[in-house]
Amino acid sequence: MEEEEEGAERSRWSQEEPPCFSSDPEPPKGRKRKRSGVCEEEQLSCCALCQDVLKDPVSTSCGHWFCRQCISSYWDQSASSGDSSCPQCGERSRSRAGLQTASQSSCVQTDVGLQEVLDEHKISLRRRCERVTEGSDETGSRTLLNTIYTELYITEGQSEEVHTQHEVRQLETASKMDALHDAPIRCQDIFKAFPDQQRPIRVVLTNGVAGVGKTFSVQKFTLDWAEGLENQHVSVVVLLSFRELNLIRDEQYSLLELLHVFHPTLQKVTAEKLAVSQLLFIFDGLDESRLSLDFTNRKLLSDVTQKSSVSQLLTNLIQGNLLPSALVWITSRPAAANQIPPTCVLTG
To answer: Is the same domain home to 117 and 178?
Structure first.
């Protein structure tokens, strides 16, 4: 692999057109979108049984709304079996336990909506990572990553400078592997702790010489996640290159805004959802960074909606002040790896 492939791939990441959240046409003005054939305006209007304003409203699985007392009385009088049907459309509900309050229904719809957004995000990342340009090919032809990807030999670093770095070596021959006397780690497994490690790995620094395939490893990891093959405990992968971040180094953003800018498919993800999701931030190409990563004289940030410099966002994210449960993966050439203090790269 040539050094140019990393720069070419990273520079294309921010140029992809984000897919639309839905191919459905927008609902006509003045009307609300229907759910299961039921207009949402109906939810808080009147009960279909008593024709009065809803009292203690509940909905059946089909989406029709009734007063709790009305639907309970209706089923008591008409249902002779364990099944209960909707008085309005006749759809059967398996049990009365299936009734939902307005707040429960709202939560269900919100979760479904979030999952749709995350699915679109996976589609976007899959499109971005499934094809790559080899070497310095300027013809615009792109090759499927899975057809050319070569497993890299990644070992746990043992240097005193960065105790938890990962060193990337080209996997050429079995004899060469034997000579290294190191346990190989697949790129998909870099966050899996070794048996003797008592704490989970949160931050990983992978360094290797130019052109060895660090960016391809990042893309392979992301592609396998987006296709549902690996690391499905991660809710969201946030893929960023330092080359992209350099473009906004003098601007003020919150972490939430940063996600929205570089990953438009995540526009509908809120701060509340980020707090309860397992995120993985991948920062590729630390050696290309023009940011001033100051881990000593930093401003403490713990709110994903608080604006600051991009450098401050990154240092707080790496140190665990912002989204302490988030995973972080940084790639770099060896000469630039010392920008991350050893105390910030934790594995156990």
So the answer is: yes
Do 301 and 329 lie in one domain? The reply is yes
209-238: pLDDT as tens digits: 888 888 999 999 999 999 999 999 999 999
Q: What is the average pLDDT across 134-156?
A: 73
Task: Point out the least confidently predicted range of 19-28, 264-273, 320-329.
Answer: 19-28
Taking the C-alpha atoms of residue 240 and residue 247, their distance in angstroms, rounded to an integer, is 12
Q: Provide the residue range defining the domain that includes 97.
A: 34-111
> What's the pTM value of the predicted model, to 2 decimals?
0.63
The CATH number for 179's domain is 3.40.50.300
Nearest C-alpha neighbor of 319 from the set 337, 338, 343: 343
Rounded to an integer, what distance in angstroms lies between the CA atom of residue 74 and that of residue 120? Answer: 42
Left (φ > 0), alpha (ψ -120 to 50) or beta: where does 211 sit? left
Residue type, 120: E
Specify the number of domains making up the chain. 2
